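Agenda item 2: copper (II) ion complex prediction
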Amino acid sequence: MIRRRFLGHALGVGGLALLPGWLRAGEMDHSMHDMGAMSGMDHSSAVQPLAAENALPGNAALQPLPKLLNQGSQPGVFKAELIAAPVAVELLPGQPTSFWAYNGSVPGPLIEAREGDRVEIRFINRLEQPSTIHWHGLPVPPDQDGNPHDPVAPGGERVYRFDLPKGSAGTYWYHPHPHGHTAEQVFRGLAGAFIVRAADDPLDNIAERHLLISDLKLNADGSIAENDANDWMNGREGQFVLINGQHQPTIELKTAERWRLWNACSARYLKLDLGGHSFSLVGTDGGLLEQPQTLQEILLAPAERIEIIVQPIAQQQTVALTALTYDRQKMGNVAPEQVLTLAQVTIAKGQPTGLPQTLRAISPLGKSSADKRVVFSENMRMENGQHQMDFLVNGKAFDMHRVDMRSQLGAVELWEVYNDSHMDHPFHIHGTQFQIVEFELDGKVTPAAFLAWKDTVNLRPRETVRVKMVQSFKGLRMFHCHILEHENQGMMATLEVV
Ligand code: C2O
Ligand code: CU
Ligand code: CU
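Presented output:
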């Protein structure tokens, strides 16, 4: 089934036929935005004015994510189809926007499966570029994980098949990962949520709500803006931040709710705050913590996910869910950070629901049998009289045909990741979840406050993080900065598990 949704009215997949010029324009710009091409901006056709910040309406009730229906008939098998194709959506009156979407929906449909399930997803690529689907955070065999090495050609298709092991319950997502096209395919709309559920979830008495946060940079004529030089340097941030594809929606919380939040933005950091109300952090990227943690705000770097419990309060109140300012040390002349309103939340008066003291046990990963060091760096150089920025891992830009590191199957490893640059970069590795041991900044070592499973962790300038991990499939794994423009320009490397 094809679902089309967004705010406004979808014109349907037929949008491709209606709007060939736009799509071709996208193709053209894309070929010029080759790896490392910060100078891509020179080629983009005349700079378009952006849509005004009040151009998108808000204040509609937050809609749940559409679900990907399981079309399998066997128990324990989740079987479905994801079609990546252009879709036109009317966000600005009379000026349709051409997105690239999974099954016509921006964001893509939510996949909900259970521990123990076998997942079989047929992916059909109706884009004019190669694509893949990467299952961000899931323990998927490398040849099923949408590596850039396994592109699905325009018009092509393939089936992704993997099993969800016991203990994998958590909050994941999926997005394209083709060589040199990831940033563009994500900012044009290709990303969706993936939840793995456990049979013995200690919080399954609490109502759930999903907030997939994405970013949209829209031109005044309704087209999706190309990346400019600043976007290629700092990572793209649009003038709109959306939740489940909606601009500044409203949320009514009547009883305790379990929120799963995804930062699916290309580069935007979200320092989340709920009008100063505290909430309980109960889960991270790879599922539940051992104990709930009471917090008042939390920084979600690009690609990170959390689960929190939001409780009713003593007096009904409407508060804003905001992203507070966070200085990630962008380069160049950039506008000062601003507090962003993401949603209006009406919290009912009521008694909080008691939470279990223990959510689950997490065994700390044992002694490391190998240590690895990863360094993220940037390098400015001149090329044809233009400043070019390189984004590097251990001094090199990504090369698909090179293996950068090797790990032993099943071995516990300690990875030291150092950000040798003056801007924040979120580190992400495929195929596994890691445990943060400690951070080090300015000679000060801060141990992780609690045990948690993570696949993405932010690094401030000159910060080191030490994490432990195990890879449990042989094959190639990518690790990279999850600011997608940096990944796209080479801040990525390949690990071979042998
Ligand atoms: Cu969302 Cu290579 O990752
Ligand atoms: Cu990933
Ligand atoms: Cu980066």
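Discussion summary: The chain has three domains: 5-34+65-197, 207-347, 370-497.
Owner for follow-up: CH.
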